[in-house]
Amino acid sequence: MARALGLSEDQRAKVRRIMEDTRRKNWDVIGQIRSERFNLREMMRADKVDPDAAVEQKRKIDDLRRQIMRARLDARNQVLALLTPEQRETARAFRQLRRERRGNG
After folding, report:
1. What 3-state DSSP class applies to 1?
2. For residue 25, what are the CA distances in angstroms to 46, 64, 66, 70, 75?
3. How far, CA to CA in Å, does 49 sit from each of 26, 40, 42, 57, 105?
4. What angle do CA 50, 54, 55 make, to 5 degrees?
5. Closest CA to 82 of 14, 1, 6
6. Mean pLDDT over residues 64-75, rounded?
7. CATH fold group of domain 2-98
8. Domain residues of the chain, as ranges?
9. Cβ pair 36, 65 in contact under 8 A
10. Residue 102 and residue 58: Cα distance in Å, rounded?
């Protein structure tokens, strides 16, 4: 998509940095999600499940997922801020096309 948008070298470097930072940040959170999901599975295997504890554990997982979503949206906004109006319009058209192909359009 970088080629289709006609990104300058400076824009490419900045986008790459944003994406790497986001990946690095999310990597730790993904590890936490795996750990918390394991804990939830262990809770659910018990003969008697504590509903409050299970709901709280699920809440932890959901909070971590929200952190990832927030980081992705922040990265998206940072990338869009680097683009010219024409590049933003091209990116919007690509997103729309991708949604239509997935049947979400």
Report:
1. coil
2. 33, 12, 13, 11, 11
3. 30, 10, 10, 12, 41
4. 120
5. 14
6. 98
7. Four Helix Bundle (Hemerythrin (Met), subunit A) (1.20.120)
8. 2-98
9. no
10. 29
pLDDT over 70 at 72, yes or no: yes
Structure tokens at 94: 């690509």
Query: Which range among 24-28, 82-86, 98-102 shows the weakest confidence by mean pLDDT?
Result: 98-102
Answer yes or no: are the C-beta atoms of 103 and 18 closer than 8 Å.
no
Q: What is the DSSP string of 58-103?
A: HHHHHHHHHHHHHHHHHHHHHHHHHS-HHHHHHHHHHHHHHHHHHT
Give the pair of three-digit tokens for residue 96.
């729309």
Q: Is the pTM of this model over 0.90?
A: no
Query: Around Cβ 47, how many Cβ atoms within 10 Å?
Result: 4
The label of the residue with tokens 């948008």 reads 5
Q: Which amino acid is at 95?
A: R
- In this predicted structure, the answer to whether residue 105 has a pLDDT above a threshold of 60 is no
